[in-house]
């Protein structure tokens, strides 16, 4: 191989490596810079993703705790029936569905479908966190109005309808989104 051919191959290799590095730097992949979203509706899509993620978390907690996110009041046992109303498992109280109370009364506290729906809705309202700072730093103003959740457990899935208001101000325009629907495939029903 001649010196001229080696020089051409080295120059081509440098150009290829440089273009790959430039692509990743401009794209933001290597530096970890998040690309701003291109459309106004991206804030809405991001918020819907937060709702779906929180819905999945709520369902997982409900499954782990025997149908409860927020356990009923703890009731201790007595000396004849030392079991309480909850099983202490790894620091978490998991309610028994059927137990003998401290006053020797047999009690049942199996969660109803309606109760589970209300608990998931309460979890979404109280625990959902959505970091919208990347949209705010782009100059968009995002206002979350009072939000309510209606959750329905169906065969093979859990549906959540968020009503209230997500108001997005961008480019001298105002967009009001008053309803979002999220659905997670999960079998909570028999």
Number of domains: 3
Question: What are the low-pLDDT stretches, counting only 5+ consecutive residues below 50?
Answer: 29-40
* Amino-to-carboxy terminus distance: 74 Å
Class from secondary-structure proportions? alpha+beta
What report would you give on this structure?
- The chain is α+β, with helices and mostly antiparallel strands and 190 residues long.
- The protein has 3 domains: 1-35; 38-64 and 113-190; 73-108, no CATH class.
- The protein has 4 helices and 8 strands, in the order H-H-E-E-E-E-H-H-E-E-E-E.
- It has helices at residues 3-27, 41-64, 113-127, 133-136, and strands spanning 86-89, 92-95, 98-100, 106-108, 141-144, 148-154, 157-170, 173-184.
- Strands 5, 6, 7 and 8 form a 4-stranded antiparallel sheet that branches. It has a two-stranded antiparallel sheet with strand order 1-2.
- A hairpin with a 2-residue loop joins strand 6 and strand 7 (157-170).
- Helix 2 (41-64) packs across helix 3.
- The longest helix has 25 residues, at 3-27.
- The radius of gyration is 27 Å and the shape is elongated.
- The model is unreliable at 29-40 (pLDDT under 50).
A few lines on this structure:
This protein has 190 residues and is an alpha+beta fold. The chain folds into three domains: 1-35; 38-64 and 113-190; 73-108, no CATH class.
């Amino acid at each position: 191989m001649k010196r001229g051919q080696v020089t051409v191959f080295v120059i081509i290799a440098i150009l290829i490596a440089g273009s790959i590095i430039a692509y990743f730097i401009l794209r933001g992949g290597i530096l970890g810079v998040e690309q701003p979203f291109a459309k106004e509706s991206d804030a809405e899509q991001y918020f819907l993703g937060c709702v779906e993620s929180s819905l999945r978390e709520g369902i997982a907690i409900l499954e782990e705790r025997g149908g409860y996110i927020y356990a009923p009041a703890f009731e201790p046992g007595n000396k004849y029936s030392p079991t309480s109303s909850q099983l202490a498992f790894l620091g978490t109280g998991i309610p028994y569905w059927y137990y003998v109370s401290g006053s020797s009364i047999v009690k049942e506290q199996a969660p109803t479908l309606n109760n589970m729906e209300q608990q998931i809705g309460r979890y979404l309202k109280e625990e959902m966190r959505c970091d919208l700072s990347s949209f705010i730093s782009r100059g968009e103003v995002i206002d979350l109005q009072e939000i309510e959740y209606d959750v329905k457990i169906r065969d093979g899935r859990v549906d959540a309808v968020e009503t209230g208001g997500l108001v997005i101000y961008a480019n001298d325009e105002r967009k009001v989104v008053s309803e979002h629907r999220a659905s997670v495939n999960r079998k909570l029903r028999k």
